[in-house]
Design goal:
heterodimer, A: 230 residues, B: CBS-domain, Beta Polymerase, domain 2, 4 domains
Chain lengths: 230, 623
């Protein structure tokens, strides 16, 4: 009964987000708008741990748009804020988090920035899991639209390279850590443990991967989704 | 984001911007990734919408020439492209193609235009051509220099009002006036009186001593008999360094300044000395005080230190070369006079010639001796023996002062290079008329000669022979071919930039594959135009109207020469400070990004002129 009531009262920002429209997979990958996202959490289990920060950069016309970058800290529930030992791992202090807006205040703006774009995440399972958990709890909603995982793209490109004979069969799978992958492309790595910087590093990795896939004939969003969709 | 700011900070012109400005650039930037072979900008295609800064990878700039596409430049991290098209909103005149996978920061047009408007350093850096950037780099080096010599104008040093007298006043009246005013010199107001125009004369306390008292003249002597008129002057807005050079070269201590043709102020060497403690102006005094060979040796050490100070002060290498030439000439003259005192007066007039880099005023460190001796055709039979002894003594003392013997034995001690004037004249003529390998080799050293001492007018007798090269197309063509045998090492450079095979590949000889190329070109152009200048910079500036290069090319070569020389001198000085033997070899990848770029652009300027020369002389066809 309570659940039904909540569903009927879906807030406008959720409705706006869900309305899309989402990019057509037949379009060339460079013509599609993306948003590259990274989150910081207290741990890996969405049921026990919580979001602490979110950062994103949009990609349009195949170019990272730094002017559109956005990030926010998220105030954890008070009981977590008190036992903040794991929080320090992220370089975030209790004082900073205490002043941050709660997740309910962050979600509307976040969703507005995700709407209508292909979501790009490195190891999407974690980030998507946490966001879906928050959306389900608050509004019975979840993330929509096409999603790409740069870690999956890395594995696919590695397999392509093996098939094409560019990498030997017994070469181990590349490490899927973001920094290691970025470094393997010779890309600059932006400062450690910050949602926005990690999103930026992921965005550059994605451009490099998509460009390489394009060289192998995968020119559309569909091809990208086949190689790294989740 | 901080990484983008930090990255940009490492490269010109961004390194000159305040952090806040860089942060706003990073704020608006976009990031794009290009596959190898992708055309980022296309010749004749849509105008650039961004200034592109390479973050990772390399891009080639391609130009269509006579139906074929040629790579004329390769840019690496920190280097920018797209600005010529962006500034003029016109289709790109070059194609920019990613050579490797390339990550670039894109600065939107609006941000770029705002930067150009707010920061002159950005505007001038991106002002059109690579040539202008070279000149700009030189000027910035000078502006950076923390020295009054290159920042202040002579006008700023004027400390006292002008005191002028009539040429009919007596030296006694002048001396009283000088005492009362507390000055060491007076201007002499020449006709028309009341206007200190270009004809204005000068009388100094040294003149009163040397030309009046020591010469036994009465104190009623009118000034017009002992003054110098017109005085040597400089425009008041000249750099302090120019005043210093003029004083050194002309051995004067007082310098009237002019504005609009009128003398408006006067400065003395003390005014300049106050600006710098390690000034070359101290050198002559050092030399006067020297009483032993050890003193002379320490004088040359002093000269070397002055070079370091001038380098720190931001002097151009050609200017440093002029200071060194004055200082070393003074030493040579002292040694020759001492030798004459020892051996007795010379039996016939002679001239001591300095050759090679010394002849070109381009010696900056103590390098090997290159010299020769010319004596009058009419000479007593004992003259050859006298000059043999003289040469032996002088060369020996120069060695003691730190100038090693020439390994090729091009010294006045070698009988071949110690000859009567007529022999020299026919030798010079022979080299031009029969330009075999030997002749080309010799002319490269001997045609850069300069007379540093001696009463025999050797310059006047030998220059006209050298001038015969003008119009001798066989000689000039052979010389051109020899100059082109050593092309600007651009492919080597690209190789260094793109791939690394072993150690040797990363090394660059800044003399052999840098400055020497310009020296050879300048000599050729000077001979082509019949000019008598010997310094490379002066040759290029004097020769272009009548030689096979344009004014722009001449200026580009001048800038290239200055920049490579500067790099070389800094490198050698660092080696000396580490206690190593100075060399001309640098490890290219270890140079700073700015130095790498300047070096590359300098070599490109040289390559352009070399290509033009190859066309002008059709060097391919000459056997």
């Amino acid at each position: 009964m309570v659940r039904f009531f909540r569903r009927r009262e879906v807030p406008a920002f959720i409705r706006a987000y869900e309305a899309g429209p989402w990019p057509d997979p037949r379009r060339l990958w460079r013509e599609v708008p993306y948003v590259v996202l990274d989150v910081e959490t207290t741990g890996l289990d969405p049921r026990r741990d919580v979001l602490l920060a979110v950062g994103l950069v949009p990609i349009e016309a195949g170019r990272v748009q730094l002017a559109g970058r956005w990030s926010s800290l998220i105030r954890p529930p008070d009981e977590l804020l008190v036992g903040a030992s794991s929080i320090r791992v992220h370089g975030l202090t209790r004082a900073e988090l205490a002043e941050a807006p709660p997740i309910a205040a962050v979600l509307p703006e976040l969703l507005a920035r995700l709407a209508g774009r292909v979501l790009v995440v490195h190891v999407a399972q974690i980030d998507v899991g946490f966001l879906n958990h928050a959306l389900r709890q608050g509004y019975g909603a979840q993330l929509r639209g096409p999603r790409l995982d740069t870690a999956r793209l890395a594995l696919t490109l590695h397999q392509h390279a093996q098939i094409l004979g560019e990498a030997s069969r017994d070469l181990p799978m590349p490490a899927i850590q973001l920094r290691a992958l970025a470094a393997s492309f010779g890309l600059p790595v932006y400062a450690q443990h910050d949602a926005l910087n990690d999103a930026l590093t992921t965005a550059q990795l994605f451009l490099a991967q998509a460009t390489r896939l394009e060289q192998q004939g995968g020119r559309t969003l569909k091809a990208l989704l086949r190689a790294g969709g989740v | 984001m901080e990484e983008i700011v930090a990255f940009l900070q490492g490269y010109p012109p961004f390194d000159d911007l305040p952090p806040a400005a860089l942060a706003s650039v990073a704020d608006q930037a976009q990031i794009e990734y290009f596959a190898a072979g992708h055309d980022i900008l296309r010749h004749g295609g849509p105008p650039a919408e961004f200034l592109y800064v390479v973050r990772k990878g390399r891009v080639d700039l391609l130009r269509e020439e006579a139906g074929e596409t040629r790579i004329f430049d390769t840019l690496g991290p920190g280097e920018a492209f797209g600005h010529p098209s962006l500034i003029r909103s016109q289709p790109p005149i070059v194609t920019v193609r990613a050579h490797t996978e390339t990550l670039a920061y894109l600065i939107p047009a609006a941000t770029f235009q705002r930067l150009r408007a707010e920061y002159p350093v950005v505007a001038s850096f991106f002002a059109a051509s690579a040539l202008e950037r070279l000149e700009f780099a030189l000027r910035r080096r000078e502006a950076d220099a923390d020295s009054a010599l290159f920042r202040m104008r002579l006008r700023d040093l004027v400390r006292r009002p002008l005191v002028a007298m009539s040429p009919e006043a007596t030296v006694c009246e002048a001396a009283i006036r000088m005492r009362d005013e507390g000055v060491s010199c007076l201007l002499v107001d020449m006709l028309p009186y009341g206007v200190l125009d270009a004809g204005t004369g000068i009388i100094t306390d040294r003149d009163l001593r040397n030309r009046v008292i020591a010469a036994g003249r009465p104190d009623s002597t009118p000034l017009r008999e002992v003054m110098t008129a017109p005085a040597i002057t400089l425009p008041a807005d000249s750099l302090v360094f120019e005043g210093l050079l003029l004083m050194l070269e002309r051995h004067i201590h007082h310098l009237p300044l002019t504005e609009g043709g009128l003398v408006t102020g006067i400065i003395t060497n003390t005014d300049i000395l106050r600006q710098q403690s390690n000034s070359p102006l101290f050198l002559p005094r050092q030399l006067e005080r020297a009483t032993s060979l050890d003193d002379l040796r320490s004088y040359t050490d002093q000269v070397a230190e002055t070079v370091g100070a001038l380098l720190d002060a931001g002097a151009r290498v050609s200017d440093i070369g002029r200071v060194v030439a004055v200082a070393h000439d003074a030493l040579l003259q002292r040694i020759l006079r001492d030798a004459e005192a020892e051996l007795g007066p010379p039996p016939a007039p002679y001239a001591w010639l300095v050759l090679g880099s010394e002849g070109r005023y381009e010696q900056t460190l103590r390098t090997d001796q290159d010299n020769a001796l010319v004596y009058a055709d009419e000479h007593p039979p004992d003259a050859p023996a006298y000059f043999e002894a003289l040469a032996a003594r002088v060369v020996e003392q120069l060695v003691a002062c730190g100038f090693p013997r020439c390994p090729g034995d091009i010294m006045a001690t070698n009988p071949s290079w110690r000859q009567p004037l007529a022999v020299w004249q026919s030798t010079f003529a022979h080299w031009i008329d029969t330009p075999d390998e030997e002749a080309l080799l010799r002319s490269a050293i001997f045609f850069d000669f300069r007379q540093a001492y001696g009463a025999l007018p050797a310059e006047a007798a030998l220059r006209p022979i050298v001038a015969r090269a003008r119009g001798n197309t066989i000689f000039l063509a052979r010389l051109a071919r020899a100059a082109l045998r050593n092309p600007a090492p651009l492919t080597l450079l690209r190789g260094v930039a793109l791939e690394r095979h072993g150690d040797q590949k990363d090394l660059l000889d800044l003399k052999l594959r840098g400055t020497a190329l310009v020296v050879d070109l300048a000599r050729l152009f000077a001979l082509e135009a019949g000019r008598t200048e010997t310094s490379t910079v002066a040759r290029l500036r004097a020769a272009w109207p009548e030689a096979s290069l344009s004014e722009g090319e001449a200026e580009a070569l001048v800038s290239a020469f200055e920049l490579i020389s500067l790099l070389r001198l800094r490198h050698q000085r660092a080696q000396l400070e580490r206690g190593e033997q100075p060399t001309n070899l640098v490890v290219f990848p270890r140079l700073s990004p700015l130095e790498q770029r300047e070096l590359k652009e300098s070599l490109q300027a040289i390559a352009r002129v070399q290509r033009g020369l190859a066309t002008a002389y059709q060097t391919g066809r000459i056997a």
